[in-house]
């Protein structure tokens, strides 16, 4: 967790050109990830227009914002509905579910899409809705969606694999094994250490919710991380996942995505966490129980993270400490 903590602090400045569409053709951007950690309000967020030749670069500095206001976010979410549904429980798998997503993760992804640094999938379709937004709007939207109940009902694939290294296992079991225990010999960390036992993520450290997400979307995201190539000007967060997914096979990515789609905050999962906290190692966890589709509880109980994003409220102590 040592470097993860550093990344959580380093990755919050998104640098863009004023003309978002032309982001790739601009000159050298003034990347300011060396910015000192100061009081939230001390860094002014300057809007620089394209007409200002002296300063062609606009910065969306999320560190200059405060924790989002969900009520303000609700009012700004009207344009998101068409694709992500009123509460972030999108129905079509080309639109990722944003219900219960981490506030700061969301804000950062919106900023990346708004500035042309994230162009994956159909994100271009979303661009007009977010390109003029202020950094604080992004956090307010994140706060609104983070408080929506994720009612994912997807289930994991329990087809038995015939042939190959995982012969005889069910598809989701392959994902579950990696998710909970990783693979030390191949330098694959356990996903549970950062994304939590129920896939709810870790809002303080910008680890996204991945439980209940559409498998096809997750699969594509993992493939993108595995390439190690990104347009992001500060790829600290991207690189965490590039390292994680580096040696995953296609089959493992598919299995993980299936497992995560079936992962919800069920009573079974919660009992598992309790048992893992006292277990000696992550692999000492009880045998796999099939993830059951069930609505997740309100994420309202999550403690508010610190302004610097350093809180680690629901990372299970035992597996996390094995992963640094
Ligand atoms: C025209 C459809 C459309 C609209 C409107 C739209 N989005 Fe999106 N959004 C998408 C698509 C498509 C993606 C997935 C891009 C990809 O596949 O990588 C996405 C991705 C996202 C992500 C990243 C999710 C993740 O898990 O990484 C966030 C956050 C998001 N949208 C928030 C919003 C918000 C907030 C609004 C309203 C201000 C909005 N979107 C409006 C289509 C839309
Ligand atoms: C050290 C912490 C850490 C570990 C371990 C980790 N992740 Fe991540 N994961 C992150 C961070 C940080 C992000 C956000 C990256 C970004 O900003 O693009 C992320 C993003 C993701 C996303 C994209 C979510 C979205 O909504 O688009 C998926 C999918 C994902 N991780 C799956 C996994 C899987 C599967 C594993 C285990 C094989 C794993 N992660 C292990 C930290 C971690």
Described by strand count, sense and barrel closure, the largest sheet is: 2 strands, antiparallel
Number of helices: 13
Residue fraction in strands: under 5%
User: Can you name the CATH architecture of the domain at 171-320?
Assistant: Orthogonal Bundle
Q: Would you count the extended β strands for me?
A: 2
Strand order of the largest sheet: 1-2
What small molecules accompany the polymer chains? heme C
**Average of pLDDT:** 73
The gist of it:
This protein has 324 residues and is mainly alpha-helical. It contains 13 helices and two strands, in the order H-E-E-H-H-H-H-H-H-H-H-H-H-H-H. The chain has a domain at 171-320: Orthogonal Bundle (Cytochrome Bc1 Complex, Chain D, domain 2), CATH 1.10.760.
Structure description:
The chain has 324 residues and is mostly helical. It has a domain at 171-320: Cytochrome Bc1 Complex, Chain D, domain 2 (Orthogonal Bundle). The chain has 13 helices and 2 strands. It has helices spanning 2-10, 70-76, 81-84, 103-114, 123-130, 135-146, 171-181, 192-195, 215-227, 236-245, 250-261, 267-278, 317-320; strands at residues 13-17, 57-61. It has a two-stranded antiparallel sheet with strand order 1-2. The N and C termini lie close together (5 Å). Mean pLDDT is 73; it is low at 1-11, 15-57 and 279-324.
Keywords:
single chain; 324 residues; Cytochrome Bc1 Complex, Chain D, domain 2; disordered C terminus; binds heme C
List the helices and strands and how they pair.
Blueprint: H1 2-10, E1 13-17, E2 57-61, H2 70-76, H3 81-84, H4 103-114, H5 123-130, H6 135-146, H7 171-181, H8 192-195, H9 215-227, H10 236-245, H11 250-261, H12 267-278, H13 317-320
Antiparallel strand pairs: 1-2
Helix pairs in contact: 2-6, 4-5, 4-6, 7-11, 9-10, 9-11
The structure holds heme C (HEC) (2 copies).
Residues 77, 79-80, 82-84, 94-96, 98, 106, 109-110, 120-123, 125-126, 129-130, 141, 208 line the site of one heme C (HEC).
């Amino acid at each position: 967790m040592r470097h993860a903590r550093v990344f959580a602090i380093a990755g919050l400045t998104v640098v863009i050109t004023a003309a978002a569409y032309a982001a790739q053709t601009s000159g050298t951007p003034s990347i300011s990830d060396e910015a000192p950690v100061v009081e939230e309000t001390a860094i002014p967020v300057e809007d620089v227009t394209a007409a200002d030749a002296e300063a062609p670069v606009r910065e969306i500095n999320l560190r200059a914002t405060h924790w989002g206001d969900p009520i303000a976010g609700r009012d700004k979410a009207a344009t998101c509905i068409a694709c992500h549904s009123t509460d972030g429980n999108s129905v079509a798998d080309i639109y990722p579910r944003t219900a219960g997503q981490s506030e700061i993760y969301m804000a950062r992804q919106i900023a990346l899409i708004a500035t042309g640094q994230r162009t994956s999938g159909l994100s271009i379709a979303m661009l007009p809705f977010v390109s003029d937004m202020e950094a604080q709007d992004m956090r307010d939207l994140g706060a609104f969606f983070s408080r929506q109940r994720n009612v994912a009902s997807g289930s994991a694939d329990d087809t038995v694999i015939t042939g190959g290294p995982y012969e005889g296992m069910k598809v989701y079991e392959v994902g579950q094994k990696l998710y909970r225990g990783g693979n030390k010999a191949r330098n694959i960390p356990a996903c549970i250490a950062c994304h939590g036992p129920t896939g709810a993520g870790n809002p303080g450290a910008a680890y996204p919710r991945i439980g209940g997400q559409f498998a096809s979307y997750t699969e594509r995201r993992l493939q993108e991380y595995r390439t190690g190539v990104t347009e992001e000007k500060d790829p600290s967060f991207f690189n965490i996942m590039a390292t994680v997914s580096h040696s995953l096979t296609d089959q493992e990515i598919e299995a993980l995505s299936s497992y995560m789609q079936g992962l919800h905050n069920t009573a079974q999962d919660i009992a598992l966490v309790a048992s893992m906290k006292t277990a000696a190692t992550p692999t000492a966890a009880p045998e796999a129980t099939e993830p059951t589709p069930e609505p997740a509880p309100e994420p309202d109980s999550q403690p508010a993270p610190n302004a610097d994003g350093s809180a680690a409220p629901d990372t299970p102590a035992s597996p996390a400490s094995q992963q640094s």
